[in-house]
Structure formats: structure tokens, C-alpha cells
From TrEMBL:
<dbReference type="InterPro" id="IPR007324">
    <property type="entry name" value="Sugar-bd_dom_put"/>
</dbReference>
<dbReference type="Pfam" id="PF04198">
    <property type="entry name" value="Sugar-bind"/>
</dbReference>
<keyword id="KW-0238">DNA-binding</keyword>
<protein>
    <submittedName>
        <fullName>Sugar-binding transcriptional regulator</fullName>
    </submittedName>
</protein>
<dbReference type="GO" id="GO:0030246">
    <property type="term" value="F:carbohydrate binding"/>
</dbReference>
<dbReference type="GO" id="GO:0003677">
    <property type="term" value="F:DNA binding"/>
</dbReference>
<comment type="similarity">
    <text>Belongs to the SorC transcriptional regulatory family.</text>
</comment>
<keyword id="KW-0805">Transcription regulation</keyword>
<dbReference type="InterPro" id="IPR036388">
    <property type="entry name" value="WH-like_DNA-bd_sf"/>
</dbReference>
<dbReference type="InterPro" id="IPR051054">
    <property type="entry name" value="SorC_transcr_regulators"/>
</dbReference>
<keyword id="KW-0804">Transcription</keyword>
<dbReference type="InterPro" id="IPR037171">
    <property type="entry name" value="NagB/RpiA_transferase-like"/>
</dbReference>
<feature type="domain" description="Sugar-binding">
    <location>
        <begin position="64"/>
        <end position="321"/>
    </location>
</feature>
Length: 322
């Protein structure tokens, strides 16, 4: 184990000298008694090991006209648009959107707030992976509340939990976890699960007090690594939602093309935030884009379930055209 840590110590030391303190590579080499070539290799290794995370800072106002048009069209408080390198690469789009959202969130005053977090969202996990530790003075308790129970296989659940914990650590908050399946087999089982676990009850109670909600916008399909049944809706249940007119969902609460909630027996199976629990105007954030989510994003905008939208250029232009 110690042997494994030694190269990482050198990588971290060199990375801090170069990126944090602005020391030139030739000076680092001289100080540490190594060649400049080795310093360069250690910096590259630090990036590969994610000790160093390099992001491109998007200049403010780069897409100002399109962003302003979207704000007016849908009554939004803020719109931030990211250029996607490949519109067909949805994984890349999620990563780029998350990185952009991290820059925006880092500028916000979050101390003392109750923040709802959709830990299974890939773009929001990317946000957390990019977010820098808060340097702002804390004033009061900050809570990070998971807005949906566990969905997907165990590894995905583990990744979601770690993301929630890291988010709380980065902003100096306290995480509240929902350690229960996101979808249950019946309303009776759901109520029994909530009654059984005090931590889940605490988290669900905190959802009534949200100041900020980082919502998850999804389609009416099952995308890997999610699996039908178990702790998620089945194919038949999604088909039922679509038969009622669903084109998308916000944290597994289905909406139609105008953003109107579709009430059904499916609502009683979900352990998570309801649309009625989302915070008042100004606190609803969505980090979503890509071709597969277009209808869901448009519906969420039409229903005024979002105040701040971070999306890709293709989605933004399509929203304006239609």
C-alpha cells in the first residue's frame, strides 16, 4: 500500500507546486532534484489520476442573445448554454453540462440553505466531480437532501451516495440520505419502508423545506445502468405513463407535453420529492440536454418547473425554433 501511495505523493506535490503556487516546471525540477521531463510526466499522470482536473471556463455572455431569448420565452431567471463537441455523445454532453453547472453553483451563496440533490443524475454527478471546495464563510447549517431513493444496481447506488457525501463536504454541509428503494411494489410497502427507517423520514421531512432543488429531468424510457423493476419502474409502468400522455418526468413524477402533472397510482410507489415540494420561484435548477431529453426539457419549461436551465446549444436553438 505504501508503495502505491509514493508515486501519488510526488504527483500531488508537483501538481500543487505547478498549479496552486505557479512555480515553473524547470524550478520544480531543480527544487526536487529531478529532470524537467519527469516533472512533465508527473503532471500528466496527475491529470490521468484525476488529482488535477482541468476545465475550460466559459466566458460570460458567450451565447448572451440565445440565453436572453430563452429566458423571455419561458420566463426563466437564468439560462446558461454550453457548446457540445458532438450532439450525438450524450455522455459527453452530461459531463460538459455538469462542469458548467459547477462554475455557476460555486458563485452562489448556499450557506444556511436546504438543497435538494438528485444524486442519480449523471450531469449532476459531473457537477460534483468538478466543484471546488467552498471558500466562503459559512453562516448557519447547510443541508444536502437526496430527492429520490435508490435506483439502479448496487454500484450506481454507491456512486450516488458518494456524490451526495462529496457535495456536502465541498460546501460544508450535512447530507441527508434516503436509504430506501426509489420505487416500491405497492403504496403499502412504501409506507412501511418510510415508517421503519428514521433517517429516511428525516430526509423526506426536509424536502418540505427546500430552498434550492437540483432536479433530475428524465425520459419515459429505461436507460442503462437503470434496470426495469426492483427499485425502478417496469417497462409496463412506463408504457402506462406514456398512455396517459407522459413525455418526460421530473424525479420520476410524470408530466405531459405542456408540463402538467399526470396523477396516477405510480406516484404512490415513489420515495422522493413531489412536484409540490419543489421550492418557490428562483430555486429550481435543471442541468439537462441532449437529443433524447429534448421533449422532457421542453415540457418542464412549459410547466414552469424550472427557473435556471443549463443546457447545450442544439437543445437551446430547438427550444426557440419550436
Amino acid at each position: 500500500m505504501a508503495a502505491d501511495l509514493e508515486p501519488r505523493r510526488f504527483m500531488t506535490k508537483v501538481a500543487r507546486m505547478y498549479y496552486t503556487h505557479g512555480i515553473r516546471q524547470i524550478e520544480i525540477a531543480s527544487t526536487l532534484g529531478m529532470s524537467q521531463a519527469r516533472v512533465s510526466r508527473l503532471l500528466q499522470a496527475a491529470e490521468q489520476a484525476k488529482i488535477v482536473r482541468t476545465i475550460v471556463v466559459i466566458p460570460e455572455g458567450l451565447h448572451a442573445e440565445v440565453e436572453e431569448d430563452l429566458q423571455k420565452r419561458y420566463g426563466l431567471s437564468q439560462v446558461h448554454i454550453v457548446e457540445a463537441l458532438d450532439p450525438n455523445d450524450e455522455a459527453g454532453i452530461n459531463r460538459d453540462l455538469g462542469e458548467a453547472a459547477a462554475l455557476i453553483l460555486s458563485a452562489m451563496q448556499l450557506s444556511g440553505k436546504t438543497i435538494g440533490f438528485t444524486s442519480w443524475s449523471r450531469s449532476l454527478r459531473s457537477l460534483v466531480a468538478t466543484l471546488e471546495p467552498s471558500k466562503k464563510k459559512k453562516s448557519g447549517a447547510t443541508r444536502i437532501v437526496e430527492m429520490l431513493g435508490d435506483v439502479g444496481p448496487p454500484q450506481s447506488q454507491h456512486d450516488s451516495t458518494r456524490s451526495t457525501q462529496r457535495f456536502a463536504d465541498l460546501i460544508g454541509g450535512t447530507p441527508l440520505f434516503i436509504r430506501a428503494p426509489g420505487v416500491l411494489s405497492s403504496a403499502e410497502v412504501r409506507e412501511a419502508m418510510i415508517s421503519y427507517d428514521a433517517h429516511t423520514r428525516e430526509a423526506i421531512a426536509a424536502l418540505d423545506e427546500l430552498d434550492v432543488a437540483l432536479v433530475g429531468i428524465g425520459t419515459c424510457n429505461i436507460d442503462a445502468p437503470l434496470e426495469p423493476g426492483g427499485n425502478f419502474f417496469t417497462v409496463e409502468q412506463f408504457e402506462m405513463a406514456k398512455s396517459l400522455g407522459a413525455v418526460g418526468q421530473i424525479n420520476l413524477r410524470f408530466i405531459d407535453t405542456e408540463g402538467i402533472p399526470l396523477e396516477s397510482e405510480l406516484d404512490s410507489l415513489v420515495i422522493g420529492v413531489t412536484l409540490a415540494q419543489l421550492p418557490a420561484k428562483g430555486g429550481r435548477f435543471a442541468v439537462a440536454g441532449g437529443r433524447s431529453k429534448y421533449e422532457a426539457v421542453r415540457a418542464a419549461l412549459r410547466g414552469h418547473w424550472i427557473d435556471t436551465l443549463i443546457t447545450d446549444m442544439e437543445t437551446a436553438e430547438r427550444l426557440l425554433r419550436e
